[in-house]
Amino acid sequence: MNCKNCDHPLSEMDNFCQSCGAKVIRNRLALRNLIESFSEQFLNYDNKFLQTFIMLFKKPEDVIGTYIDGTRKKYVNVVSYFAIAITYAGLFAFINQKYFPGVYDRLFGAVNQNEAQVQFTSDMLYLIFEYQAFIFFLMVPVLALMSRLVFLKNKKYNYTEQIVITMYAYAQASLFVTTISFIAQFDKQLFFLNSILGLPLQILYFAYILKRMYNLNFVQIFLKTLLFLLILGMFYVLFVIVLLIYLFAFTDFFQQVIEAEKAKKGVSYIISSAINWTS
């Protein structure tokens, strides 16, 4: 037979194509070998995905550095790894909205009794969930640009290489935080704690990645992180302004906030009048 990927002639003893390296598939697709393939790809300790995930914590400069230097077979390539992270986050968003409806309303309602603020926070989070794939792609060049600004005087990596660093780091942080979110979904306090600590943990992981990639000491990465936070704050303010413009222009969100405030004032007036009358 010939290889189904590159049409290179194969012998009966070949398990992998000698030309393109693809695995030789002889059996018809069935549920059993589909499960075996999934286990081989994602559950085996020696597989690329698990090795990539582990090494991005232990030695990220090896994963990212070898990819930038041209080694593409040792670990999962950056595009595939980023796609896995997006798919995983999308699965979490689907399960969250389908099986845990109103979780953010209850969550933020428990810590803040202001109905308008609760509604605002909940709407923002659901909006982020709805467009999270687009936000993922949008954030990569933005975060890469921020990193390039932080290391403006350091020419070790250009902007394109910064994008690769950012994609690996962002995907890894997303996989970790999403996994914790899955676990914390069943406990309101733990879920709230994860919601609060998610962003700081991602920032710390980005700092760790850049420390290893640029071989910085503690003082250097501390100062670089402060500069990164300053730039992040500027971008965050810009993002909030754009989001508010979107809510104002394309939704009736602000009208709902105004009506909620009017209703709250009306209830307060009635209670106040009742107290004055009874006194």
Please provide a written account of the structure.
The chain is mostly helical and 279 residues long. Helix content is 76%, strand content 0%. The chain has eleven helices and no strands. The chain has helices at 31-42, 48-58, 60-69, 78-99, 103-111, 115-130, 132-150, 159-184, 188-214, 218-250, 253-278. The longest helix has 33 residues, at 218-250. The N and C termini lie far apart (96 Å). Residues 266-271 and 273-279 have low confidence and may be disordered.
Offer a few descriptive terms:
globular, single chain, mainly alpha, 11 helices, 76% helix, 279 residues
Layout of helices and strands, plus pairs?
Layout: H1 31-42, H2 48-58, H3 60-69, H4 78-99, H5 103-111, H6 115-130, H7 132-150, H8 159-184, H9 188-214, H10 218-250, H11 253-278
Helix pairs in contact: 2-3, 4-8, 5-6, 6-11, 7-8, 7-10, 8-9, 9-10
